[in-house]
Design goal:
By secondary structure, the protein is an alpha/beta fold. It contains 3 helices and 5 strands, in the order E-E-H-E-H-E-H-E. Helices cover 24% and strands 23% of the residues. Strands 1-4-3-2-5 form a 5-stranded parallel β-sheet, with helices on both faces.
Length: 124
Amino acid sequence: MNQHHSVPNSSPADATDANPLPETLPVLTVIVPVYNEAGTVDELLGQVFAAPYDKQVIVVNDCSTDGTAAALRKWELRPGVEVLHHDKNRGKGTAIRTGLEYAQGQFTIIQDAPVADRLEALDD
């Protein structure tokens, strides 16, 4: 499920490169909308992966201009990660909707960057 997608200006539902569903669905999808988070995205994704859940992680880069795309390249190689890139800045709401188009988990959460809400809160 390691994918790098550029998302054109059209609706995410129009994307032709969507992944087929895996044989077993993850319990959790974590959507991470990012914009200009080059300095924090590694810490954020490290914490997301430290959470003990079977998960799919979808990072939506909303056309960052600060090197976020370069920082995400190493994460694209990690199993369970999909990195999507908007070709122009469209806002957080659209980034979340783009991620929802690819979500395959039984449950979906949004994890803002920088690390504002900890995944440990799910246990509460």
